[in-house]
Specification:
Largest sheet: 2 strands, antiparallel
GO molecular function: endonuclease activity
Shape: globular
Organism: Siccibacter turicensis
InterPro entries: HNH_nuc
Order of helices and strands: HEHEHEEHH
Number of helices: 5
Helix content: 10-25%
Keywords: Endonuclease, Hydrolase, Nuclease
Strand content: 5-15%
Low-confidence stretches: 1-11
Protein name: HNH endonuclease
Distance between the termini: 34 Å
Radius of gyration: 14 Å
Number of domains: 1
Number of strands: 4
Strand order of the largest sheet: 1-2
Mean pLDDT: 77
Length: about 140
Amino acid sequence: HYSPASGRYPQAIFDHGTPLALYHTKRLASPAQRIMLFANDRGCTKPGCDAPAYHSQAHHVTAWTSTGRTDITELTLACGPDNRLAEKGWTTYNNTHGHTEWLPTPHLDHGLPRTNTFHHTERILHNQDDEDNPN
């Protein structure tokens, strides 16, 4: 069961017991995980990107090569071009609200928004992500 208000994934199980934590068994996201990502992220999570969920890929927030884990809490949506930014020095992490933040390489970082609200207009009314970053 997913709670949009919490912004986090509780220990979620779909019908017929499909797990959303694949741990070290697979690198690619399962269909059940992709459905959860579609519901939670709604599209690419990189700030400034308007790519919808159906044009996005499952992206490991922490590189799979580092953790070897494919858990729903370690996945987010990223369109193809933004997914490849990880290979160019960009990093991602989940903030305290469970939203994915994108950090550019230091020479590109100009203090721009780190989360994408394009697919989540409800966040604009109460931008809780700004509370995480006092700058």
